[in-house]
Design a protein that fits this description.
By secondary structure, the chain is α+β, with helices and mostly antiparallel strands. It contains 9 helices and 10 strands. The protein has a 4-stranded antiparallel sheet with strand order 1-8-3-6. The radius of gyration is 25 Å and the shape is globular.
Length: 343
């Protein structure tokens, strides 16, 4: 890939890239701290020494006379919104420090922090945009969603939209970087040439899917939250909350996978099974009945649609005759689609 060639030919590229990340993340954090300072202190000073009817104060629900529970509730929500942005930027900054070559053994930790930071920033900026649309600059008591409010808050919404999209793209970029690291580890584990996996994910026809899944509590002990299945693409990254439920099928039994804090689960799909000739298997898994609301973030990956899936030339993959006929990714997907239609 392009960036692989850059840091292979220029030894200082990783240092430069890491420092650019650090500087950019620090600027993000300073900007969020400035917003919070303006909200908490700057507007109050304006109210005390400046104009009475201050538009910023109306937008942020600042009123020296506010006494009601609803007023305090709105202030708390706004505080949390600003603090979430600060937290996301702080995670950005800490994560980017781990991108320095001297912390090479902590790079995955940095990626995870960067991913979480991007998610937090995206959510907080999305909430901020919605809040602006529900806030009238003319009437602080009007909290209904109005498109016309966007006109009054156009500058703030414009900035928040850029921050939102930046957070989303950073989130996706950090996950793609993490997947590339997973591919490099797989190359080493299978004693393959460098970029054996990554070269199948190089163009716009590679398959990526990001899902936020919600599992609802169920009183029926026999009913599953999600039925047994195998992932049918490449590697899958899974981030669970602290609510158990995931189970895997091994040796004729179902085993519970307890959630572990600050970790990601890695699962191989059917392409991994075919590539390695069953040396690595695509394990069956399901989500058992949950007693409380459960969330998980799933990132699915698959190679380019025209990639031929056939047994790799690794030693452990060729111990036995190939169990699978060569097949392209698009043919495999068509087979899965037909099987689903006839189910």
């Amino acid at each position: 890939m392009y960036f692989t060639n850059v840091y292979r030919n220029y030894k200082q590229a990783l240092d430069v890239g890491a420092w650019l990340f650090i500087i950019g993340s620090a600027c993000f954090l300073l900007d969020d701290l400035q917003d919070w300072f303006h909200y908490r202190i700057g507007i109050l000073l304006t109210l005390k020494y400046g104009e009475k009817d201050n538009v910023d104060a109306t937008i942020n629900h600042i009123d020296k006379k506010q006494k009601t529970f609803f007023d305090r509730y709105r202030r708390i929500k706004i505080n949390l919104n600003y603090l979430a942005s600060i937290l996301g930027s702080l995670l950005y900054l800490v994560g980017s420090v781990f991108f320095l070559p001297k912390f090479e053994d902590k790079e995955i930790v940095g990626d995870i922090l960067f991913i979480v930071g991007a998610a937090v920033i995206s959510l907080s900026e999305g909430c901020k945009i919605y809040r602006f649309a529900c806030t009238s600059a003319l009437d602080s008591n009007d909290t209904q969603f109005h498109v016309k409010n966007i006109r009054h808050n156009l500058q703030a919404i414009f900035i928040s939209c850029f921050a939102l999209f930046g957070g989303v793209f950073d989130f996706i970029g950090a996950i793609l970087k993490l997947i590339s690291i997973v591919h490099n580890i797989a190359d080493l584990a299978l004693e393959l040439n460098e970029n054996t996996f990554d070269r199948n994910y190089r163009n716009d026809n590679a398959l990526y899917g990001l899902r936020l899944t919600r599992y609802l509590p169920n009183k029926n002990d026999q009913e599953l939250a999600f039925g047994e299945h195998q992932d049918y693409l490449g590697f899958t990254l899974l981030q669970n909350d602290n609510v158990p439920g995931l189970e895997v099928y091994m040796n004729g039994k179902w085993f519970r996978v307890d959630p572990k804090a600050n970790s990601l689960l890695l699962n191989g799909g059917e392409f991994i099974e075919k590539w390695t000739n069953n040396y690595w298997i695509s394990i069956k898994h399901r989500v058992a009945r949950v007693e409380q609301l459960r969330y998980s973030i799933v990132f699915l990956t698959g190679p380019d649609l025209n990639t031929h899936i056939e047994t790799l030339s690794c030693k452990n993959c060729t111990l036995t005759k190939s169990k699978y006929s060569p097949i392209t990714v698009i043919e495999h997907l068509k087979q899965k689609q037909m099987a689903t239609l006839h189910y």
